[in-house]
Structures are given as C-alpha cells and as structure tokens.
C-alpha cells in the first residue's frame, strides 16, 4: 500500500466560461423594448495552495484528474450566469510545479502561497453589453472561452534542516527514532525505508527538523537503487550528517569506503541553479552502532582519519543512546548558524506581474509557406480570444469579429505581409481557425441596417437597384422581339409547312 508520494502528474481541466445570452425585452405596448441578454459566468480556476498540514502528494496519486466548475450561461432580463467555483488543491510546502515540457512554473516554498495553475475560461458578453448607439439591438452574443486543459507535474522536495545520508541499514531511521518522536519502519534488511522520514528534534534551545534519504548506494546519481529518486529531498537542507555503519558484515565495506562512495554520489548530483552544492554545505559524521564491541574498536580506529579531513565526528549508538545528546547539540548549532546566515542574505525574488509594454504589439502576422501556397498566421492573445468567442453560425457575430480585427490593425498588417484577397489566414497556433481573407468584409458593420443575426456583407443575395431592374427588363423585351422576328423570317422562308402556324399546330388544334 502506497503511503508516501513525492512526485505525481496531474491532468487538469479548468471550467469553461458560460455563453452570453441573446434576448430582447418584451413589455406591454413595447414588443421590442431593447436587448436584455445577460453575460455568461467565468469558469472556475484551479489553484494550488501550500499547506503545512499536508506532507505528501498521496491524495493525487489515485486521483490525478481534477476539474473545476464551468461558468453558467447568461439569461434574459439582464441576468448574468454564475461563476464556476474555484477548486483549491492543497499541496505540501516545498512542492515544485512544472509544465508538461519540464519547465518550472513555481516553487511553493512558503506556507500559504497560492498559484493559479489552470485559469478558468472567460464568460461571454450578452447582447445587452454589446449594444451601442450604432448597434442598438445586437442579434448575437459572445461565447465563453474554454478553460485551461493540460498536464502539470508536482514534485515534492522535503524542507528539513538536517539530512541524514548513508548506506542502507546504516541506522538512519533508528537515529531519527532516537532523536525525535518519529516512529519510522525499522528492520534489519536493505531498503527498509522506502520514503523520506521526518522528525523534529529538540536539543536544549535548539529545535530543528531531520530527514533521512533512503537508498543511497554506489551509482545512485545515475539511477541505481532508490537514491536518485530521493536525492531531491537533500536540496533544501542546511547541513548533512553522514551516518556510517561501524558494525557492517559486508566484505569490502568500512566507514571510510562508505563515506567516499556517498561523497561521490552527492558530488555528481546537480542542484538547481542558485543553490549551494551539496558538498559545500556543513557536514558532520556519526559513527553508528558502537554498542557492538568490534564496532567501537573500528570507530576509534577511523576517527582520527575522519577528523584529519575536517569533519566533526561523533560516536553514537541508537540502542544505548550513547553520544546522541552531544550530536543533537552539534546539529542544532549548525542549523542556527545556517539560519543566521540566511537571515542576512537578501530575500528571494518575488514573482512580479508586469503589464504589457505600451509599444509591445497586440499580435503578429507570420507568413508560412506550404505545399498549397503561403498562409498568413495571426498570433496574439486578443485575436485568439475573439475567435474563440465568435459564433460562426451567426453572420452578425462574424461581421462583429471582422470589425474588431480591423480596429486592432490586423487588416493593415496582413496587407504589409503581402496578403491579397482570397489569401488563407489562420488565427491561432496549430490548426487554428482558417479564413479566406476578403478585405471588403472588415468595415462599417455598425452602419449596416440588416436584420438581427445577419450581416449584409456576408449575404450573397443582393437586391437589385432600380436602374439594374430597368436594364434587365429592356434586355428581356429586346430578346423577345428578336425571337418573334426570327420566327417570322422562318415562316416567310417556308420552313413552317401547310396550314401550321408558328406554334406548330393546325387549324383544328391537333399537333
């Protein structure tokens, strides 16, 4: 049964925005009293919250698919739709959020930090909000935009003051149990610890947290064993405590050899940019299991060698608790020293949200060559959002979209890029929305007097003018006169036989 999860992939679907409403107010003696369609509600966001009461990502291991509520559509009588409820997902402090490409989005290192990982869609405007002095009764509304849909990876990096590193069965879990109130699983076989254990140590006035990193063996930094999977938990620790087994029965192993192997693995592990490398942090050595006579002799033998390398060495026994008090005070001093140094350092840079620069373009037009000719791709937040809000079954809505794009300058930019009438224009990345560009469709929508829900610029059926009707009438009359004259010439030439007239019938009406 899984009890600890420190990495999980989430599949998120934020709520979609509700559609705007098309409605006309009807009152007594006022059958068409003006538009009153309400706006659609915004879709619910999905927010990650750093919660100190949560210590594992286990809640998302079995339920990786999470979604928030959709916004409700608008209604008549200016009733706006309800916004979707925000979905808050509590995660442990120290969780790193990455997108599907592996790019780090945020590091939730402080309790209470919030991050909108999946923004909800925007609700569409109703026809009441779209009304203007020139468009008094819009026959369309804007659609709600879809919310974010995608994958993110949550990676937990334990926040502890001291990290215990060492070979399997070196006694790290026993040491945490002896120093603190934690009760990890302890057994006499390798890889007993399958996930990091945390414990709070109180040594006099010193109070700090200790975590052990399971499964460090030779080659752990290259993926062998469990070490690489849990080495990330060492990144945030202020000091390292090497726990060396002085009572090991494995041939070819001794405290010095074990220490050199662990040091090579720690050196090979790359910490994130800006953090102190693992081997440059304060390090102490604990020679464990000295309650065994042979182990005490070996500890006395290797201690001078370790001290000559600059390590503070402590001989301890988790069974008899010998040396644990001195070790706890020494660790507390290192933690206090690291905290005092961190307090003098400048605060970590905050995430600053800056508005778009004034001169930054709202969109770009990129000509792209292909086997079927050049296409012109329009990329930008506004054009892509406007396309998503347009109901292409409504001609008036399409005309409104054309006007918005023209006011934004898309028309002029397409001309500069070399587009001509009939060119293929794609708005948005990937497949996007494809148009056959017609420049004549991008102006004076407010001045059109077409019925609601239609746009004369998109209607191929055009009413002929009086001059055109008169010209057509004269052409038809001339054609009929010419046909009668032709029949008369054929009669005179004797083409029609006997008593048959020009209609091809005899005097008695028989054909």
Describe the structure.
The chain is of the alpha/beta class and 511 residues long. It folds into four domains: 1-156, Distorted Sandwich (Spo0b-associated Gtp-binding Protein, Chain: A); 162-344, Rossmann fold; 364-458, GTP-binding protein OBG, C-terminal domain (GMP Synthetase, Chain A, domain 3); 464-502, no CATH class. Helices cover 24% and strands 19% of the residues. It contains ten helices and 18 strands. A hairpin with a 4-residue loop joins strand 5 and strand 6. The longest helix has 27 residues, at 466-492. The relative contact order is 0.09.
Key words describing this protein structure:
Spo0b-associated Gtp-binding Protein, Chain: A; 10 helices; 511 residues; Rossmann fold; disordered C terminus; six-stranded mixed beta sheet; GMP Synthetase, Chain A, domain 3
